[in-house]
TrEMBL record:
Residues 215-410 form the FtsK domain. ATP binds at G247, V248, T249, G250, A251, G252, K253, G254. Gene3D superfamilies: P-loop containing nucleotide triphosphate hydrolases (3.40.50.300). It comes from the Bacteria. It comes from Lipingzhangella halophila. This is S-DNA-T family DNA segregation ATPase FtsK/SpoIIIE. Keywords: ATP-binding, Membrane, Nucleotide-binding, Transmembrane, Transmembrane helix. GO terms for molecular function: ATP binding; DNA binding. The chain crosses the membrane at residues 72-92.
């Protein structure tokens, strides 16, 4: 992205009479006069001193106060002042620990991180990452404007070099994360020429997350699923979209499916949502069978369930035609989510060609037409290659759990996902449930971890919510 200032010097004129092999190029060396360098250093030094009270008001006033105390009152009074200040901070910490942490501790950490990590390594890391040139010109080096700290991460606000774009930085997040020894780096745009780089100081997703508590009313567009690496809750949209969850065996697809079902429970209970479950392995979903309006485990019944869903969807679309363009979940017209574990069993692995064809047709129809009439599909898959699942592009939202190969990341999350840091193939096997997702409105993938719904949790869910609100959906016949 950055080019040497002499890059244009070696152009050959096509009309030149001199043969190309005879041309010798010499890079012109232009020495900057020493007086200019000296003036610049002096200017920078004076500017740093003048700006210091504004940049570091606490540090400068503490220093000035200490010097004045020693000068006018002597060392003893400085020691007394230090003791009093220490006691004051101690009382503050004891009485108001939260305010003390955010106003004192995190600011001290930010100052330290700015000095020791970012300022110290800034230029080398940016040069190696390909975001700056190695010469010292400040105008070619993105500038750190501010470092702040939250409990879990550093936020570095950066002024970009003119002529570069946030996408240039987004494409280097892996290098930046390694350069500053962080588990990841996330870029957000913070102004016309500013971006904020977020570097987690510790991995919030390292520990498993217990099943989340169930909240009512249910927001079908933001179901609580787990935790994002920035400490915020991970919420997933199901209404108005379809979600494909991909991961190798043991990656935690079950925890994504069960977290979604768990978040839907109050809506299942009041009849505004229904889960239609397909469980070819008979391992994942059978345990919560009483929660589902429909359930299928054999290939034949699974295809029948999918075709029933298509009929019900088309009946609803016919009713809505010319009357309404969007669906609102009600007990009469509930939101129906078809959950398909190991979808490749039906679309690729089943020996009967007719079953494969019917399943593909039904899934394609549901995913291409179901969105606006309140039919969604949540499918799980181990192998995202086209020959196994050629319908993956019909799923607008994807969850990439641990994958086998680097090339699969872009297959699941979209072309530039790996460049933007979604290293799903590097997720360790000992953190099942960790995944990369793309959130609405942001092209940068985010690392998340699904909460783990244990067998005991499922048993409790069945006891509390099973067999409630399971009315039949118009057009679907008898359940
Ligand atoms: N979110 C999670 N947090 C902690 N542990 C988890 C999580 N998800 C799954 N696990 C653990 O990993 C194991 C495998 O998970 P799971 O059965 O969901 O994998 P899967 O992707 O569905 O695999 P398969 O394709 O073989 O069905 C679980 O038995 C559980 O011990
Ligand atoms: Mg599974």
């Amino acid at each position: 992205m950055f080019h040497s200032r002499n890059a244009g010097a070696a152009q050959v004129q096509p009309t030149s009479p001199v043969p190309a092999h005879a041309i010798r190029f010499a890079t012109p060396v232009v020495e900057t006069p020493a007086v200019f360098l000296l003036t610049r250093w002096v200017y920078r030094a004076v500017r740093s001193v003048v700006l210091a009270p504004f940049r570091f008001p606490v540090a400068v006033s503490t220093l000035a106060g200490s010097v004045a105390t020693v000068h006018y009152l002597g060392w003893v009074w400085l020691a007394v002042a230090v003791l009093l200040a220490g006691a004051g901070l101690g009382v503050w910490w004891w009485r108001w620990p939260v305010a003390f942490r955010s106003l004192v501790v995190l600011r001290a950490v930010a100052a330290w991180r700015w000095l020791w990590v970012y300022r110290r390594h800034w230029q080398p890391v940016l040069v190696v990452a390909g975001l700056a040139e190695s010469y010292q010109e400040r105008q070619y080096l993105p500038q750190i404007r501010k470092v702040t700290c939250t409990e879990w991460a550093d936020r570095v606000r950066v002024r970009l070099v003119a002529g570069t774009a946030p996408a240039d930085v987004e494409n280097r997040v892996v290098e930046l994360a390694h350069g500053f020894a962080a588990p990841s780096c996330r870029v957000t745009v913070a102004g016309p020429r500013d971006v904020v780089l977020e570097f987690p100081r510790r991995d919030l997703l390292a520990e498993p997350l217990a099943a989340l508590s169930v909240h009512s009313p249910v927001d079908l567009c933001a179901l609580p699923m787990g935790l994002r690496e920035d400490g915020q809750p991970w919420r997933m949209r199901l209404h108005g979209t379809h979600v494909l969850t991909v991961g190798v065996t043991g990656a935690g697809k079950g925890s994504v499916i069960w977290s979604a079902i768990r978040a839907l429970l109050p809506a299942i209970a009041d009849g505004t949502a229904q889960v239609w479950a397909i469980d070819p392995k008979r391992m994942e979903l059978s345990y919560g069978r009483a929660l589902f309006a429909r359930y299928a485990d054999s290939a034949e019944s699974a295809v029948g369930l999918l075709e029933t869903a298509v009929n019900a969807m088309q009946e609803r679309a016919a009713r809505y035609a010319g009357r309404q363009r969007t669906h609102t979940a009600t007990a009469d017209d509930p939101f129906v989510v078809v959950i398909l574990d190991e979808v490749a069993f039906l679309t690729a692995y089943h020996p009967d060609r007719d079953i494969r064809r019917r399943a593909e047709n039904a899934i394609a129809t549901l995913t291409s037409q179901g969105r606006s009439v309140g039919f969604g599909v949540l499918a799980a898959l181990q192998d995202p290659r086209k020959e196994v699942m050629n319908l993956r592009n019909l799923f607008p939202d994807k969850v990439a759990l641990r994958l086998d190969e680097a090339s699969q990341v872009d297959m699941v999350l979209g072309e530039d996902a790996r460049e933007r840091g979604a290293n799903a193939h590097l997720i360790a096997p000992d953190v099942p449930g960790v995944a990369f997702v793309r959130l609405e409105g942001s092209p940068a993938p985010v690392r998340v971890r699904a909460a783990y719904v244990t067998d005991d949790d499922i048993a409790a869910m069945v006891a509390d919510y099973g067999a409630r609100g399971l009315r039949s959906v118009p057009g679907a016949g008898v359940a």
